[in-house]
Write a structure and sequence with these properties.
Length: about 80
Amino acid sequence: MFVSHFETTSHSFLCQNVKCRNVFEVPLRRLLEVDRVVCPACGQRIGIEESKKKGAVRKDFDEAERLDIEARRKEKQE
């Protein structure tokens, strides 16, 4: 059964709070629905709108979509 890479892949973030600098991951599926993420350690908000349009998050979205298309193609062939 097909499971989307948007469900199984996460994007890593580095908290922008200089006193925190926590690294945390958020599943791609969740990033589709939000314009900012919140550091679980300190509550710092990180805007991701630009990254979703043309940055690292966009690259992750594009790669997950490519992998999903490939997986669906293979599943149909079986």
